[in-house]
Design brief:
about 425 residues
Length: about 425
């Protein structure tokens, strides 16, 4: 192994630029992730409206995620990422201006959510595909580990800061809306963070900018080829279908339920929501650090490990329905975070080892579609269900459903084979 390939990815200038800009932007993103659901609840007081906003953001993301992956495989991921983050920066800046000026209305929230969802459909696949163009193949594992740790640290730091900022601005509302000043500042922090990300992307130089990959057919044909490649790989296909089912039945209730839990049952308001999200991020950071040990312990039984962890996570989520304490909720979400962190790192590493590089953008877009596209769509249903059932009932149903799905899928040979000795990668 050469010295270049064995050195830390941080020794590479372009990697340092991407990592630094992405770190600041990831922390800023957490401010919007806390502020947006809080804004909707303060404007409407309706969980159904919150679910609809999340669905409005998810629809274009779901519709264009696969196209985004194909575009990334055809073009430079740096250019795609630069364009997508520029659009996001403009939209979040507009949102901050409207909230601070007391001119925000729900129809504007829906419109901005739609635009943000469309931009992220291209940003996520581009972000996952740019790393192989910046570091040597032998450095990919270390580079991915650094980015995963950074994302978890942003989830640890960002939500708590966002919750405190929103709470600190609670007395500066406009037009009678509580927390307006703090919400506007939170969106402003995210908008400012994009400046650092955009600057780093402008300075990065990658091979793909001047030597684009050859491609056959149009974008839709490339999308079809990516889907066929995933479908032809039986364990990968089984995991994607499993993840899709989990996202539909569990993702939405959690997205809608946590802000409602903080608003109606916990004692610190927006700060409680920030603490819950911080606890989950801290747990995922610990889980990502434990993933290597977990993979060694289970060896070739990664699929069974994932299903077993999901079964335990479902029980922890069900217990949230009985929670009236920020501290207890934080402990439960830290537990689910640890379990989720182990699963996330091991599964992504397994996919990266399994999939051919020229298919990586499309394969990751299919995986992201199952989580970021389908999950928020179920939030609209979850918000409507809260008109008919109580919050504890919804948490219990989501948690027990996750446990039941995981236990049932333990009978699937394809899912149990995840992590088995690698065969030849699927052809493009």
């Amino acid at each position: 192994m050469s010295a270049a390939s064995s050195a830390s990815p941080l020794a590479q200038r372009d990697f340092r630029l991407l990592f630094g800009g992405s770190t600041i932007s990831a922390i800023g993103d957490q401010f919007t992730l806390v502020a947006l659901p809080w804004l909707v609840l303060k404007l409407t007081g309706s969980p159904a409206a919150l679910g609809l906003v999340l669905a409005t953001m998810a629809l274009p993301r779901a519709a264009f995620m696969l196209i985004g992956g194909a575009v990334v495989d055809r073009l430079s991921p740096r250019r795609v990422l630069l364009a997508a983050r520029t659009v996001n920066a403009l939209l979040v800046s507009l949102l901050a201006t409207l909230v601070l000026g007391g001119a925000i209305h729900m129809w504007l929230v829906y419109a901005l959510a739609l635009g943000i969802g469309l931009a992220t459909a291209f940003a996520y696949p581009a972000g996952s595909a740019i790393l192989p163009q910046l570091v040597a193949p032998a450095q990919l594992r270390a580079g991915n580990a650094l980015f995963m740790a950074m994302r978890q640290l942003s989830m640890l730091v960002g939500p708590a800061l966002a919750g405190l900022l929103i709470s600190a601005g609670a007395h500066g509302g406009h037009g009678g809306m509580a927390d307006a000043h703090g919400l506007g500042l939170a969106f402003g922090v995210d908008a400012l963070s994009f400046v650092f990300s955009l600057a780093s992307l402008v300075l990065i130089r990658v091979h793909g900018d001047h030597h684009p990959r050859p491609h056959d057919g149009g974008v839709l044909a490339n999308v079809g080829a990516g889907i066929r490649a995933v479908w032809a790989d039986l364990p990968l296909r089984a995991f994607v279908l499993y993840a899709a089912v989990v996202s539909v039945f569990v993702g939405g209730p959690i997205q809608v339920g946590l802000p409602m839990l903080a608003d109606t049952r916990l004692d610190l308001g927006a700060a409680s929501l920030g603490i819950l999200m911080t606890a989950n991020g801290g747990g995922m950071l610990v889980g990502s650090m434990l993933s290597g040990l977990a993979a060694k312990l289970v060896r070739n039984r990664l699929g069974l490990m994932v299903l077993g962890i999901d079964g335990l996570a479902g029980l922890a989520l069900a217990a949230l329905g009985l929670d009236h304490s920020t501290l207890t909720g934080a402990a439960l979400l830290a537990t689910t975070g640890i379990l989720g962190g182990i699963v996330q790192v091991t599964i992504v590493s397994w996919i990266q080892r399994r999939v051919a590089p020229e298919m990586m953008g499309r394969t990751m877009s299919v995986l992201m579609f199952t989580f970021m596209g389908l999950g928020p769509l179920s939030a609209a249903i979850a918000g409507s269900l809260l008109k008919l059932v109580s919050l504890p009932t919804m948490f219990a149903a989501a948690g027990f459903m996750l446990t039941a799905i995981a236990l049932t899928c333990m009978g699937s040979p394809a899912l149990r084979s995840i992590g088995a000795p690698l065969r030849a990668p699927a052809a493009s």
